[in-house]
Amino acid sequence: MREWIIGAPEEQAARTLRDAGASPVLARLLALRGFADADGAQAFLDCAGTLHDPLLLADMPRAAERVRQAIEKKETIAVYGDYDVDGVTAAALLTGYLREQGADAFAYLPERESEGYGLNSPALARLRACGAALCITVDTGISALEEAESAREWGLDLIVTDHHEPHAELPGAFAVVDPKRPDCPYPFKGLAGVGVAFKLACAVEGPGSETALFARYGDLLCLGTVADVVPLLDENRVLVKRGLDMFAQAGRPGLAALLEQAGAGGKAPNASLLAFTVAPRINAAGRMDSALPALELLLTASPARAKTLAEHLCACNDARKREEARILEETEAVIHADGLLQNKVLIVAGEGWADGVIGIVAARLTERFERPAMVLSFGEDGVGRASCRSFEGFALHKALSACAPLLEKYGGHALAAGFSIRRENLPAFRETVEAFAADCDILPVLRLDCALDAEDLTLAAAEDCARLEPCGAENPAPLFYLEDVLVAEVRPLSGGKHLRLACRMGGRPFDALVFGAERMGRTFAKGDVLDLAAELSVNEWQGRRSLSVLVRAVRESAALARQRARYRRLRAGEEDGAPPGRKACALVWRTLAAHDGGVLEPKRVCGALRLQMPELDYTQFLLILDVFRETGLAAFSRGEGGLAVRVETDMKVRLEDSPLMRRLMGAGGHSPHVSSGRV
């Protein structure tokens, strides 16, 4: 089970920000993000900042000069991309720019099923045979040592632009541009592949060109950056903020058509819309077939053609969802059949699973089983292609580097990676990964910004959260801790797929939405006492704005554990406390009598009663059950799903006859005033 880590802002920083005019909630959020002065916080909120000089990237001057030479000499230029959103947007951006400069340029995207990830020598040979004199990679190539050597032998100049982690040796290309190169002085290492491609275009264009180029390609830059889950800090934050403004103008026919086809036409764009609506549909093309329709969608100037392509991508996304569900079911069957849950890392192998879907399945397994997951699909050639997902504490790229002698190829980041392996090496690979994992602290955590009280749940607080946009990696949407939340009603939405919970917290009512309720791993019912990890957002409907509370995770309330512990101390005489009151005893008695012969879940029953009597906590409830047991009013036994209850409705008892009640009264507590008669 994930550990919840609740942040605590530096109080002096939060006070300084409040004194400068920030609301208490916004001040806490900014302090948690490291801001201690008003000027720095305001610059962050305004997404103010300058872009770094592209020529600071190692090898960039050399790369830019070679591209300019190719344009001047009318050489054929191939842009070699990847089939994910980052790779497709990078290919569209650089190809579009080169064509605008009059270059003879075309894009090449490998087929996922037949070619796999990254550069491959047969493709480079075909590009050279087609007349390409220069090949520029985008979002790929940093690990292509053999392919770079082949290109050199064939007389094909290769410029690698990438943002993935390099291996110890760099490719022997004409130029290698990657901010993560150990010798690269570029001040920001978090660019996406499309960001590096944009920097190349700026370097080719010359000093002061960023604004004009951004006006033409900022939407692509924004989309690829958000989709690749790179840090939305530093210049990425500036680029995405400006790019979202371009999305609102709907200038690119392909993106406008895709938003319309996805039912998001006219919505105010934000990073979440791009990540969860636009990006999956562009990714789906490469996952299910070819990424070329996605590339064409981003390059076309025809609204009619854009509509056709958008329909195709949405159909691909629907097919992807069906395939994902099938493979997920099969992988879970393998996990349970092979006893893989005893391992720290899930390594699940199968036959013929779609390479384009196993990455999503790996993410689902990581979420469901709370451990890193690697999903491999073996083909007829005996080679398995894998996608991996992880979380804090287990760096995939380092783990795969430890297994390098067993792998055909590998690459990626700390949290997402891929590799290929021969079937005969799989047993040794499993052992090596587990040995590596043994030295890692693999404990999934859920990091929450801070706790909110009931009075903090306001539209103004949601508006403060929106000021932190764009949100994403390393600047996540604020996630709040709501403790001791009572569920008063559960209303299913979309046939039970989603839920609306009517809740109370600190006596105040509010509604909360649970999307994908089945992923929460529990049922919801009236009387649940929960802790929520929730986001606050602004809901707009028919011109009205209201608060929306979105539940991202849930657990049994920590308050119940504290109250249970206090009950045990009171029961053992280790702590003094007041006896239960008459009204509380009567309320519990009526509930038990109404369910005589049935089975009750104590925590939910107590929660439901708290809706009528907020002061009745779980400590008092358990004490009352013990008093009823000691006086013979009720008998309890463990039943399926809770406590089986039998009550004696015709007995007349004095609750003071209970030893527990006498002790609590004798410890200085007040009398419950139920000295005779039935409760």
From TrEMBL:
- Assigned keywords, A-Z: Exonuclease, Hydrolase, Nuclease
One Gene Ontology term of the molecular function aspect: nucleic acid binding
DDH domain spans which residues? 77-225
Regarding protein family, the annotation reads: Belongs to the RecJ family.
InterPro entries tied to this protein: DDH_dom, DHH_sf, DHHA1_dom, RecJ, RecJ_OB, SSDNA_exonuclease_RecJ
Tell me, what's a Pfam family for it? Answer: DHHA1
Q: Where is the RecJ OB domain?
A: 448-552
Keyword Nucleotide-binding annotated:
no
Q: Could you provide one GO biological process annotation from this protein's UniProt record? A: DNA recombination
Query: Which ranges carry the DHHA1 domain?
Result: 343-438
Protein name (database record)? Single-stranded-DNA-specific exonuclease RecJ
Q: Which organism is it from?
A: Ethanoligenens harbinense (strain DSM 18485 / JCM 12961 / CGMCC 1.5033 / YUAN-3)
Q: What is the lineage of its organism?
A: Bacteria, Bacillati, Bacillota, Clostridia, Eubacteriales
Reading the lineage from the top rank, the first entry is Bacteria
